[in-house]
Amino acid sequence: METQNNEASSFNNQKLSIPAVNDVERQTNMEPEANDYFNYSKRSQWLRAAVLGANDGLVSTASLMMGVGAVKQDIKAMILTGFAGLVAGACSMAIGEFVSVYSQLDIELAQIKRNNRRGEVGEAEGEKESLPNPIQAAAASALSFSVGAMVPLLAASFIREYKVRVGVVIAAVSLALVAFGWLGGVLGKAPTVKSAVRVLVGGWVAMAITFALTKLIGSSGL
Q1: Mean pLDDT of the chain
Q2: Are 60 and 89 in contact (CB under 8 A)?
Q3: Burial of 92 by CB count in 10 Å (0-12 exposed, 13-18 middle, 19+ buried)?
Q4: DSSP 175-190
Q5: For range 35-60, the mean pLDDT
Q6: How confident is the model at residue 109 (pLDDT cuts 50, 70, 90)?
Q7: pLDDT tens for residues 193-210?
Q8: Which residue has the higher pLDDT, 45 or 180?
Q9: Residue 192 pLDDT > 50, yes or no?
Q10: Residue 119 CA to its chain's centroid (Å)
Q11: pLDDT in the model for residue 8
């Protein structure tokens, strides 16, 4: 009788241990999915920031070129203005991003030092691996801005006829705005059509206002 009871008890213990093993396996299998989701989210944020930087370069440089084109029709003035806008904007984006990320880095380093004082060495080592890189962030911002700014510059570089040049710049910028708006919507999980239309209309408004105000000031002789 005792042998049967022992066998029954052993069998019950084995049955109870099976779900625990399954739970461990299930948790182990879920961990890579969670890590993949985190990495995807992190990549999406970087890509979205790059798209926004390129869109800034596109709109600001195109608006500058359209503004100068409102009062000066020669190609040299428009190209020089666009190039100056590209360099100035890329430098501004890089310096601004460097200062911002470096401030964030100082805050996180201070927090790591406080964790070290409390003896949380393992946690502090993990935090060091995920620290932001100011130089990398500055370079990425400058590069993305420059990519966007190159669109109107390349569109206007080889066209001497003023009206054709302006039309080609508007067409190229419009196409790029739609592409950036669509990509931003995809990365931000937003409706792509609405995002593309919103970015396109915003770019048109910026170019139109710059062109109109520059034309007004130029015609008044100021």
Answers
A1: 79
A2: yes
A3: middle
A4: HHHHHHHHHHHHHTTS
A5: 69
A6: confident
A7: 998 999 999 999 999 999
A8: 180
A9: yes
A10: 36
A11: 47
* Amino acid (one-letter) located at 115: N
Residue type present at position 108? E
| Residue 110 burial (CB count, 10 A) | 10
Q: Which two tokens mark 78?
A: 């428009």
Tell me the whole-structure pTM to 2 decimals: 0.73
Residue 31 vs residues 26, 27, 124: alpha-carbon distances, Å: 9, 6, 22
- The two tokens of residue 192 are 């792509």
